[in-house]
Amino acid sequence: MNTIITVFLFLIPIFLLLTRRKRSSEKLPPGSLGLPVIGQSLSLLRAMRANTAEEWLRERIRKYGPISKMSLFGKPAVFIYGQAANKFVFQSDSSTIVNQQVKSIRAILGDRCILELIGEDHKRVRDALVSFLKPESLKEYVGKMDEEVRMHLEMHWHGKQQVKVLPLMKTLTFNIICTLLFGLERGPRREILVDDFQCMIEGMWSIPLNLPFTRYSRSLKASARAQKILQGLINEKRLALQQKKTASPRQDLISCMLSIYNDKNEQVISDKEIIHNVMLVMVAGYDTSSVLLTFLVRLLANDPAIYAAVLQEQELIAKSKANGEFLTWEDLAKMKYTWKVAMETLRLFPPIFGGFRKAVKDIEYDGYLIPKDWNIFWVTGMTQMDDTIFPEPSKFDPTRFENPASIPPYCFIPFGGGPRICPGYEFARIETLVSIHYLVTRFTWKLLCSDNFFCRDPMPVPTKGLPAQISPRKLL
């Protein structure tokens, strides 16, 4: 009898464990995790490069519904879709989900950037970034932005008959960031750094196998080289700040972050945090802004009526300026239609395809279980092309943004939302408006590639880098 009781007591926890596992398994979203490590990564990346990634995901939605499980970049994930999914991602606090990226992004950008930090650490570092990037601070940098754009056009556009738009826009945004945000002078270090950042970006969405022939491996090496250069730059700026006569805390983002001290006279942001967040800002500003500007050029070339309206707005501002006078914050406030065109461009061609969060505990969502430590994968652009939200979603129509309140919340979120909204939003707006002002008032252009195809690698890349024939406009 004692033996039977002992066996029975031994079997109870096993039975409960199996029952719990079965119950949890039944609550998992539909779908498959695929092959170990690889999962659906290669399939998604192929679809992105063929510009069929949205259809790839719609097929999943048709098959499994708005929530399904998969495996991406070496980790199980739950794909969620729709307005409710976007709201869940941006409204949940760190007790439910955290903003942890996949291993490839985390390893390349670093684990102390604001994409990875949570709680007080996130607030501390974000506040430091915002102190420099907030509108009140950026007002004084419009003139420097203006100067950079004019210099770029003089060097790379004037006197040319043909250009490749995307590479030149990347050159422009990189130089703007180096000058305004990091105070890095033109020269060999800039040239090395731009190559390293391009290599880093290529491996950010990749299977994290550190083998010599992989993009991931090349990106890790490029990241290490970039971090070494940035540490040297930090050392130089710290020395300049200590000498005081040669530097100001407000002259660039790195100097600003180095100048933040607490009550104990301790540096609030560590060197490692500065490096990792500088790399994040560099990647975001370099690639996403250049993509927006490139597709703006393409869309204006393909739509004469929209182009004429933008030109009219910008010529009125140009006529109000004395010869050689820089644009001002007040001038940017008058570019309302141009910014609507930019927002519609972001809706149709979002630079960032999707994002990741990590569940910090088992989560019940839409009747299914998202297990602890699984990634949550969502694609913001899916709602932007939903015809129940944006009628005729493929049509380029800037009037959609005449009344932003008419757009349902969490359906158009090109800069994120909630406490993690992109701190560089205003910087991107200034950069875009200043660049477009000088492009449309000083040049006309005609595209030399008739197809409208682009691939994602992982950012949108138009065919052949968008070659265009350009002609100078007569200055007013």
Account of the protein in words:
This protein has 476 residues and is of the alpha+beta class. It has a single domain, classed as Cytochrome P450 (Cytochrome p450, Orthogonal Bundle), CATH 1.10.630.10. The protein has helices spanning 2-27, 41-49, 53-64, 83-91, 103-109, 119-133, 135-138, 142-156, 165-181, 188-202, 215-243, 253-258, 271-302, 304-319, 329-333, 336-348, 381-384, 425-442; strands at residues 67-72, 75-80, 97-98, 162-164, 355-359, 363-365, 368-370, 375-378, 443-447, 454-456, 460-462, 467-472. The strands form four sheets. Strands 1-2-8-5-3 form a five-stranded mixed β-sheet. A hairpin with a 2-residue loop joins strand 1 (67-72) and strand 2. The longest helix is centred in the middle third of the chain and has 32 residues, at 271-302. Residues 1-25 have low confidence and may be disordered. Its main location: membrane. This is Cytochrome P450. Its cofactor is heme.
Features:
single chain, alpha+beta, Cytochrome p450, 5-stranded mixed β-sheet, 12 strands, disordered N terminus
